[in-house]
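Supplementary notes for students who missed Thursday's class. We covered one full example, reproduced here. Read the sequence, then the structure, then the short commentary at the end.
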Amino acid sequence: MAFEKGLVKSEKAFEQYTQINTAFADIVKNEFMTTWQWWFGIALFIVPWLIWFKYRKKDSTGRLLLAGLLTIIISLTIDLAALSLGLWSYPMILLPLAPFLLLPYHFSLAPVGVMFALQIKPRMNSLLKGIIFSAIAAFGGMNFFNAIDFYDPKSWSTLYDFVIFLSLYYTGYWITRMESFNNLDKVRTEKERD
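Structure (token representation):
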């Protein structure tokens, strides 16, 4: 009985969600698409990747892309949890497919930023480099996005963003330093000898 009632409520909520998505699509089409902010957001999807492909450390591309993918997954997970708790929001909607997310941040800026931070001065103290990256991303980037209305932190502290960026950096750092990359190559070489 409770399960069927839950299904009915779920279907009703889904219909409301569909109506909300339609409203967001209308907002993007009629209000945002003609603004410089919308086009700037679209450029933030594309330009960081173009720059990274040109200036990436080519012999580390696989490791860096793995760090970037992990950054995407973790940043999306954190963001979805924070959005569902109402900790922050994204007033600027770029695509009605995901109206609650700042997609250039998740799919371009965060992963490319982490990948660049990892490849620049690879022998530098990782804690110092992580702090510098996190400070630029949190205190510079997030405050900039707040100023141009891409991001509304509500009562969320920029210091918390700093900790999130430091965690993203160190997750990427950890995955690029895994020795198992070399081990797979060694196993293949040993099999080729046999």
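Commentary. The chain has two domains: 1-34, 35-193. The two ends are 64 Å apart (CA to CA). If anything here is unclear, bring it to office hours.
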